[in-house]
Amino acid sequence: MSSREDVLSLLRGEEGFLSGQELSRRLGLSRAAVWKAVDALRAGGYEIEARTGLGYRLCAAPDVLTEAEIRCFLGETAVVGRELRCFEELDSTNNYLKSWTDGPDGAAVTAESQTAGRGRMDRSFQSPKGQGIYLSVLLHPALPPDRLPPATALAGVAVCAAVERVCGLRPGLKWPNDPVLNGKKLCGILTELSLEAETGRVQSLVLGIGINVGQRPEDFSPEVREVATSLLQVLGKPVSRPRLTAALLEELDRAYGALLAGDLSEYLAAYRRDCVNLGKTVQLIPFGGGERETARAVDIDGDFSLVVRGEDGKERAVRSGEVSVRGLWGYTE
User: What pTM value is reported for the model?
Assistant: First the structure.
């Protein structure tokens, strides 16, 4: 760690003041080096009080997605988040990990903003600076490809659990992979799988997640504003992005463990509980064109496909790669 991070770590561990002399002794730095580190922290947005005869006290930390801030809240994880890289700006966190060919299992990357954030069907995902969590995780599951389709659904459950832990309210899930609050989209999830051409062996799975945290309505484009919301809009107060990012990494670590173990019963039960479509009449919109169909959503099967009952009374499962689902009168309703 740098002297700046060392000083920050010690100040975090103190409830009161810590003298410059004690900081110098513990870190093996000169008093001038300690002062420079404190000055650099202040320039980075940290509020540090200094009092003659007492020393320094950390009063407040900035709401930034840096490794130091995220790890302040991050507990032990088995795989996900052990390697963490944080950037001011990327074109796409998913693109970064897809190009990191030798990245370790569970490597995570965040960005304060994305210039080319993407969602499903190559739709644009708006990623304004400092207002959301834009995070991707690189996984190397030693599993056959047919065991991986539930990964996106598990990520949706992980987002809901992380938001509940930090904010005290649990989003619903619009099938197949959109956490929602008050009938509007809170988060986008994009999973990209890479297979070895000759053998069909899984090379990597990149899981991208974008959570709207601090956006106000005017921060969304007019067309997105109709269907999107943020935690700030719903709660009426700011939410710590580093704290929520840490909670998300921990929940993704749990979900990855369940995927590798092949025991998805807990996540299937949670998905069924959280799914806002069940018991409602929905529109099935085929990808690539075709007529919309009206059906009733009745269940989520073991593959996390949506079981619907058509107007003819027959039930069938539809998969996320086949159709998009919307409510009759809005995004979820």
Answer: 0.90
